[in-house]
Amino acid sequence: MKMSPELEKLFNDQITLEFGASMVYRQLAIEMEDNDFPGAAQWLRHQADEEIVHANKFIDHLADRGNHPSIGTISAPKSPGTTMLKVFNAALAHEQKVSAAIRGLVNAAEAEGDLDSRPLLNWFLSEQIEEESTVSEIIGRIQLIGDDGVGLYQLDLELAQRPVATTENTGGSPH
Ligand code: FEO
Predict the structure, then answer these.
(1) Is residue 131 a contact partner of residue 95, using CB atoms and an 8 Å limit?
(2) Residue 100 contacts by C-beta under 8 Å, 6 or more apart in sequence?
(3) pLDDT for 58-81, tens place per residue?
(4) Res 175 pLDDT > 60
(5) What's the whole-number average pLDDT of the chain?
(6) Is 95 in the pocket of ligand 1 (CB under 6 A)?
(7) 86 Cβ contact partners less than 8 Å away, ≥ 6 residues apart
(8) In whole angstroms, what is the distance from residue 139 CA to residue 156 CA?
(9) Binning pLDDT at 50, 70 and 90, where does residue 164 land?
(10) What is the DSSP letter of 57?
(11) Which residue's CA is the nearest one to ligand 1's atom 2?
(12) Please, what sign has the CA dihedral across residues 159, 162, 164, 170?
């Protein structure tokens, strides 16, 4: 069933936010590349690709329901600096912003009784818990390591283990 124009606008805003998140992560990857942490850069590039998958999920949902997906203005991402801690703190702050936006969508859909978006939004609620948890865990590791170069080098090697992502919406979890 087609969603209301009001809900369509909110979903389109989320498409823009997800593409914006991709740009945020891409910039953060650049900062890590700049500071010679190729593993962290690769991890963040993977995340940038995942955000495109998220945007595609919303686009596909709107299109499937006969609504019109449209991408809004994406503002330039800001650089938080080039230390690993600053970069991953910026990532967490952005994830928290996205989580708040998803909760807003859930509330708006529920207020309208829009049941058809429920499975998609439930997927995103779980996804946000996971993304915040993953980034928080990395921040905890960085704080534990402090300024120890060997520790940071080791963490960078571990972050490099993340496999290459796809930007396609394959239907399931992009992890
Ligand atoms: Fe699409 Fe990282 O939230």
Answers:
(1) yes
(2) none
(3) 999 999 999 999 999 999 999 999
(4) no
(5) 95
(6) yes
(7) 80
(8) 13
(9) low
(10) H
(11) 95
(12) negative
Q: CB of 56 within 8 A of CB of 169?
A: yes
Closest CA to 17 of 119, 83, 104: 104
- What pLDDT digit, counting tens, does each position of 35-57 carry? 999 999 999 999 999 999 999 99
114 lines ligand 1 (CB under 6 A): no
Q: How far apart are CA 135 and CA 89, in angstroms?
A: 8
pLDDT tens digit string along 103-145? Answer: 999 999 999 999 999 999 999 999 999 999 999 999 999 999 9
Domain covering 5-159 assigned CATH 1.20.1260.10 in the classification? yes
Atom of ligand 1 nearest to the CA of 131: 2
- Distance from the Cα of residue 4 to its chain's centroid: 26
Amino acid at 168: E
Q: Assess whether the C-beta atom of 101 lies below 6 angstroms from ligand 1.
A: no
Q: Is the CB of 155 under 6 A from ligand 1?
A: no
113 phi, psi to nearest 5 deg: 70, 30
- pTM here is 0.93
Do the Cβ atoms of 60 and 169 come closer than 8 Å? yes
| Atom 1 in ligand 1: residue holding the nearest Cα | 51
